[in-house]
Amino acid sequence: MRTEHDTLGTKDVPEDALYGIHTQRALENFPVSGRCVRMELVRAITVVKKACALTHQEQGDLPADVAGAIVAACDEVLEGRHDGAFVTDALQGGAGTSTNMNVNEVLANLAILKLGGQPGDYARVCPLDHVNRSQSTNDVYPSALRVAAIRLVRELADALARLQESLQKKEQAFAEVRKLGRTQLMDAAPITLGEEFGAYAQAVARDRWRIYKVEERLRQINLGGTAVGTGAAADRRYTFRVTEILRDLTGLGLARAEYPMDLTQNCDVFAEVSGLLKACAVNLLKISGDLRLMSSGPRGGLGEIRLQARQVGSSIMPGKVNPVIPECVAQCAMRTIANDAAITLAAAGGQLELNAFLPLIADALLESLTLLRNAVALFRGACVDTLEPDPDACSRHLDASTASALLLVPALGYDAAAALAKESLATGTPIRQLVLERGLLPPEAAERLLPAR
Length: 453
Description:
Blueprint: E1 2-6, E2 9-13, H1 21-29, H2 39-59, H3 64-78, H4 97-114, H5 127-131, H6 137-173, E3 178-183, E4 186-192, H7 193-218, E5 220-221, H8 236-250, E6 255-256, H9 260-265, H10 268-294, E7 305-306, H11 324-348, H12 358-384, E8 388-389, H13 391-400, H14 405-412, H15 414-427, H16 431-438, H17 443-449
Parallel strand pairs: 5-6
Antiparallel strand pairs: 1-2, 3-4, 7-8
């Protein structure tokens, strides 16, 4: 063990640990979720630290060898070489200070090693005076969260675009498959399976556009605002330059906030993004539920579509195959909706100059983005692309229903059409047959309104 000190006293840290006393205290203080901070956020914080170090190097505010060692340490973390060193719990007090210090300490100790020292030799590279120079958790953490969120937003938008294309292909492929449309789970009107999938494609298209556009809300960052957005303890030259360097490093259209105190205090942008993710989840939940209904059976359900068999469905019921992909997608959607409630509460819970609940916002938002990105890709590749229609089942349900009575209302009137529907239900005679037998419409009109299979 090695002994480190802070303003509260001393504490032992594992000899070879890349983290230090601040992280050790966090490990002891927050043993709650059993989940570490998401690596997307850790890497985003690291690229922020790299931008800061490069800015100080350029402006001569750090010794060249120290700045260079910190930048090299950042590169190693960004390559994924030290993921195990980031150990703070996802849920923590302090508005994310523990995570910020975990990154500071790991980068400092890696830099120390590069300069020939041993971990904990902070006279060479200090986590606070060097790695965290001109920074506060309160500007680093929300800026990094925006970087991480933008990257995932782009990936989700791309996944939704591909799902939309798949649904549109099914719309075209199923354009001639006539089936029974249902409202409130009751027989309603004749439609085509293609029209049904076309409606799904439209819903996903809206989600794609909304999520693509919300990136604009995330591009402003408060980096350089330090503790409360005023820029205290940071040089004005640094404040403007660091955003430019971070923009170059990330390739994202980041801009310095016009009013940094706003972004330090307020988290409504994250609530807005989460709200759009919730809307996307609502559509995924509805579509996946529809596919489960339409594929139900194989004998006792609707059976209008066939989902690809993915795995054995039961440990006791032979031959059972379940719609596991739509079920998985539905659960991802449910979790996203639940996360939105948590983000809403946390964003509203900020007080005065800071929101202390950013760790919850970050964990929930990044989880929702990751879940939806993965679920959308899974839904497309393992379900939508491979499902097939059962035209016979679709026709059988349609012919046995009274839905075609709707099409007769303009020609025969509501009451006459209703009487035919009632007789069809009572006798089991299809409405089309009744119309033809009684000559209620000219044959060509009957064929146009009530075509055979």
